[in-house]
Design a protein that fits this description.
Elements (H helix, E strand, L loop, with lengths): L1 H21 L3 H25 L24 E8 L5 E5 L5 E14 L2 E10 L5 E6 L13 E6 L5 E5 L41
Antiparallel strand pairs: 1-3, 1-7, 2-3, 3-4, 5-6
């Protein structure tokens, strides 16, 4: 499982850096952005199909990730406000074990001129990135009913690019043997995030 998580985190963080760099040239952003997202998704699908570390490697019916078409309106500027007291707590998982997390700060952003906030966590085992699990109004229909995740590379700045096109399903969506952090109740977005990874059928 650790290798799977490292693969997912590393490829998302690399893509995030590419997107930030490509945004420096506004004229080329659109086509380059779509190209980068498409390449990332091809890499993920290849990993699911061919890697021995794939979460579906031991399954007869292998489910491969499906996605919404990339939409740049879901790539937004976000601002981090650190909590004055960053408590460490045990986040429950689908297997009733726990992940030790730091409740680090609040990410604020806008979609269609409406303001939203999400809590950013740090998994103590992966201290170089923020872990941002969330629910939204597509859950149980187009997307996994238990919610989705985002990873965000930590920098020294308080301004970030939050890209919901990179939202992904927990691995327990694909294989029940995996233990996945349960999305905290306060990370519920009262809007539809029609971006990122989708669910395949109504059973999810």
């Amino acid at each position: 499982m650790e290798l799977v998580l490292k693969f997912r985190n590393s490829i998302i963080l690399i893509l995030g850096l590419m997107i930030i760099l490509s945004s420096c040239s506004e004229e080329k952003t659109n086509s380059k952005y779509i190209e980068d997202i498409t390449k990332y998704r091809e890499d993920v699908k290849d990993f699911f199909i061919n890697s021995e570390d794939s979460p579906v490697v031991d399954m007869t019916d292998k489910i491969i990730p499906e996605y919404y078409s990339p939409k740049e309106e879901y790539k937004v500027e976000a601002y981090l406000e650190e909590f004055s007291e960053k408590d460490t707590f045990e986040m429950l998982t689908t297997q009733s074990d726990v992940r030790n997390m730091i409740r680090y700060g609040e990410i604020t952003f806008k979609l269609d001129d409406e303001k939203f906030t999400l809590t950013a966590y740090i998994n103590i085992e992966y201290p170089d990135s923020f872990f941002i699990p969330f629910h939204d109004e597509t859950n149980g229909n187009d997307t996994y009913e238990a919610g989705r995740y985002l990873d965000l590379e930590i920098t020294e700045q308080n301004k970030y690019i939050l890209d919901f096109n990179l939202a992904y399903n927990p691995y327990c969506y694909y294989n029940a043997k995996y233990s996945c952090p349960i999305v905290p109740a306060d990370n519920n977005l009262n809007t539809k995030i029609e971006a990122g990874e989708k669910a395949h059928n109504e059973s999810h």
